[in-house]
Design goal:
Pfam families: Aminotran_1_2
CATH superfamily of the largest domain: Type I PLP-dependent aspartate aminotransferase-like (Major domain)
Number of domains: 2
Bound molecules: 4'-deoxy-4'-aminopyridoxal-5'-phosphate
GO molecular function: pyridoxal phosphate binding; transaminase activity
Radius of gyration: 20 Å
Oligomer: single chain
Strand content: 15-25%
Family: Belongs to the class-II pyridoxal-phosphate-dependent aminotransferase family. Histidinol-phosphate aminotransferase subfamily.
CATH class of the largest domain: Alpha Beta
Order of helices and strands: HEHHEHEHEHEHEHHEEHHHEHEEEH
Helix content: 25-40%
Keywords: Aminotransferase, Pyridoxal phosphate, Signal, Transferase
Organism: Hymenobacter coccineus
Largest sheet: 7 strands, mixed
Length: 359
């Protein structure tokens, strides 16, 4: 392991923003549209709901189906159970990686990108190297590669990227990973990959299969629609899984209803296609609204859209919040931005009504 490093001289220059949870709490009254946490308001499948209800009767028992879920994932990905770790959402898996690698050296990340892992690593005195996005709002893989040196413990790649909704060119990402993972481990956060037309083509699961030093994090909180139940998994080399498991409670950290819901939902294509179709319809409504109102936006591969504001971001969040609409703001490239999660059509209409008043 690399030697432990001294604290960085200056605070890491990550873009400042509220967390999803803080943004939700910031709205003063009841919400008409909860569009700040990239949830999937179409919820879990009917099969998952049924499984949750059935599991309630036996909830005095410890959850026993983690093995079944791990095996299902292993079979689908062509890997072994030793490559897979489950936890209560992907957040605890990001925390495990932050603790393990953050104590060894620095984290290279994009900016803006999902800041959870680097921010947690920072608490272990890990220096954060924040690399600005390219002109088309994607992670700048070339610039990130140039930052890799003897002090680097981990490269964190969020693909598709939160908050921009952009996705990396698969061939480019795979070539980057094959090269860079020979020097340092790579953590790919694929929380939103299920929203892509061909998630398998975009995913780095194959890199794990080929034995590369790559970790892939997935979650049931987004397209699968049960963020409130908490299930996520990490796929990596078995020695990495052993190392990260030191920081985890283990399979008992996931409740029985959550594991049951995940078992019946995993790769349920009929449900996934239906949720995707509804998401795309709401996203098109938002694109049309923004165009009509004279706003640009970053074309999104995900269930959220980022667009540049024409007013102060904090004031925008407050004014929208007063109208029962919760969204998030960012500031980067000397520009104020709003990120809107894609909701149900009634939520998008509530957003539109508030937006035409506030903007
Ligand atoms: N990764 C990314 C990129 C996310 O946006 C989120 C949720 N906002 C997470 C991980 C964590 O989600 P969960 O713990 O619910 O899996």
């Amino acid at each position: 392991a690399a030697p432990r490093l001294a604290a960085p001289a200056a605070p890491a220059p990550l873009a400042e923003a509220l967390t999803d949870e803080q943004a939700l709490l910031a709205a003063p009254g009841p919400l008409n549209a909860r569009l700040s946490a990239n949830e999937n308001p179409f919820g879990p499948s009917d099969k998952a709901k049924q499984a949750i209800l059935e599991s309630v009767t036996s909830c005095y028992q410890y959850p026993m189906q983690s093995r079944e879920l791990i095996q299902k994932i292993a079979d689908y990905e062509g890997l072994t159970p030793a490559h897979i770790m489950l936890d209560a959402g992907s957040s605890p898996l990001l925390l495990a990686a932050a603790m393990h690698f953050g104590q060894q050296g620095g984290i290279i990340t994009g900016d803006p990108s999902y800041a959870d892992l680097p921010r947690k690593a920072e608490k272990f005195k890990s220096p954060i190297v924040a690399v600005p996005l390219t002109a088309d709002y994607k992670l700048d893989l070339d610039a990130m590669e140039k930052k890799v040196d003897a002090r680097t413990a981990l490269v964190y790649i969020c693909n598709p990227n939160n908050p921009t909704g952009t996705v990396l060119d698969a061939a480019k990402l795979k070539a980057f990973t094959a090269r860079v993972s020979q020097k340092v481990p790579i953590f790919v956060d694929e929380a939103y990959i299920d929203y892509l037309p061909d998630p398998r083509a975009a995913s780095l699961m194959d890199a794990v299969k080929q034995g590369q030093n790559v970790m892939v994090a997935r979650t049931f909180s987004k397209l699968y629609g049960f963020a409130g139940l908490r299930v996520g998994y990490l796929v990596a080399q078995p020695d990495t899984i052993v190392a990260l498991s030191k920081y985890a409670v283990g399979p008992m950290s996931i409740s029985a209803p959550a594991v049951r819901a995940a078992v019946v939902s995993f790769q349920d294509q009929a449900y996934m296609q239906d949720a995707l179709k509804k998401t795309l319809a709401s996203k098109q409504f938002l694109y049309d609204l923004l165009k009509r109102e004279g706003y640009d936006y970053i074309p999104s591969a995900t269930n959220f859209v980022m667009f540049p504001l024409k007013m102060d971001g904090k004031r925008f969040v407050e004014e929208m919040g007063k109208r029962g609409v919760s969204i998030r703001n960012w500031e980067f490239n000397n520009q104020q931005w709003c990120r809107v999660s894609i909701g149900r059509m009634d939520e998008m209409q509530a957003f539109a009504a508030a937006f035409t008043q506030v903007s």
